[in-house]
Q: What sequence folds into this?
């Protein structure tokens, strides 16, 4: 995003990426899907929500890629 400030959704996504990467390091895995806590992981759910919100900018309903 050259020359553009990040919005709150992108800032939150960046924070969630760091948290997710730290969790993967703590669990010695490179992918959430390989983690024993994959199903029901609240951090992963928050990350997926952050990705969705960064694309939809918080609007509800569908969006197109």
A:
């Amino acid at each position: 995003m050259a020359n553009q400030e990040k919005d709150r959704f992108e800032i939150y996504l960046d924070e969630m990426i760091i948290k997710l990467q730290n969790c993967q390091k703590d669990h010695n895995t490179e992918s959430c899907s390989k983690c024993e806590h994959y199903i029901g992981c609240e951090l992963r759910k928050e990350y997926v929500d952050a990705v969705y919100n960064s694309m939809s900018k918080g609007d509800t309903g569908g969006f197109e890629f």
User: Anything to note?
Assistant: The CA atoms of residues 20 and 55 lie 18 Å apart. The helical segments are 8-26, 42-56. Residues 8-56 form one domain. The radius of gyration is 13 Å.
